[in-house]
């Protein structure tokens, strides 16, 4: 199946930012979207917005730190639309701080959301993709994994782990499944809300030249719309002003 029209796409972290923008764009281009996030009021509003514009959307509360929730997201796609063509694993947190502060609980949360959340998505979708004989994993990573800087050690570590797992998955996937890693640079989202103040000040300065979430959504759409047999493996999307 090529293009976007008619594809069933599940998106985690769909309540805001890149996930929301991706769901809107893919629905506009004819995909049937299945929305997952923790904030149900945002999911309900987004689904209603998509349907008012003539699109098709379903939603379910999804906490990616719970394996059962990812199974529920994939299950809803199959129940509502009969299949799942693409899983966009986009949910993530960036609790950036100096290692000396020993924010171990923040480290654990980043591992649970950024890394284990992607693995739980793979565990839920891979058997479905194998059964169908087709499927596409799109994993949102970060340029933080390409250029490691102070304050971002654990965050970058989780993103690099996803990059490594994605490459292994690509090699194991065979010729019927696709795996794409999208690495955004600075993007205007609510990403900094829970950061250490020192880290937040640094990231907020970057936001002056940050991308809109739509730019990343277009990159994801580019990977999704490619014809069967074409695997866009790695996309980096960052502001021209970003070092």
From TrEMBL:
**Species per Swiss-Prot/TrEMBL record:** Streptomyces virginiae (Streptomyces cinnamonensis)
Family assignment?
Answer: Belongs to the short-chain dehydrogenases/reductases (SDR) family.
Instruction: List the Gene3D superfamilies.
Output: NAD(P)-binding Rossmann-like Domain
Q: Looking at the keywords, is Coiled coil present?
A: no
Does the entry feature the keyword Oxidoreductase, yes or no? yes
What name has this protein been given in UniProt?
SDR family oxidoreductase
Q: What is the lineage of its organism?
A: Bacteria, Bacillati, Actinomycetota, Actinomycetes, Kitasatosporales
**What are the protein's UniProt keywords?**
Oxidoreductase
């Amino acid at each position: 199946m090529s293009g976007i029209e008619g594809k069933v796409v599940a998106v985690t972290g769909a309540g805001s930012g890149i996930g929301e923008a991706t769901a809107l764009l893919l629905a506009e281009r004819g995909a049937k979207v299945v929305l997952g996030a923790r904030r149900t009021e945002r999911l309900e509003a987004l689904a209603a917005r998509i349907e008012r514009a003539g699109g098709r959307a379903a939603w379910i509360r999804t906490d990616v730190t719970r394996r059962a929730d990812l199974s529920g997201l994939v299950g809803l796609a199959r129940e509502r639309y009969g299949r799942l063509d693409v899983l966009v694993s986009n949910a993530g947190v960036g609790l950036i701080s100096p290692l000396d502060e020993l924010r171990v609980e923040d480290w654990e949360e980043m591992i649970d959301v950024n890394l284990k959340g992607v693995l739980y998505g793979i565990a839920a979708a891979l058997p479905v993709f194998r059964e169908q004989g087709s499927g596409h994993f799109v994993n949102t990573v970060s340029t933080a994994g390409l250029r490691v800087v102070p304050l971002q050690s654990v965050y970058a570590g989780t993103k690099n782990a996803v990059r490594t797992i994605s490459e292994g998955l690509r090699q194991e996937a065979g010729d019927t499944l696709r795996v794409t890693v999208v690495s955004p640079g600075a993007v205007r989202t609510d990403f900094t809300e829970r950061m250490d103040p020192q880290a937040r000040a640094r990231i907020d300065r970057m936001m002056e030249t940050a991308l809109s979430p739509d730019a990343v959504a277009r990159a994801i759409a580019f990977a999704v719309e490619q014809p069967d047999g074409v695997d866009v493996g790695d996309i980096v999307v960052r502001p021209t002003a970003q070092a």
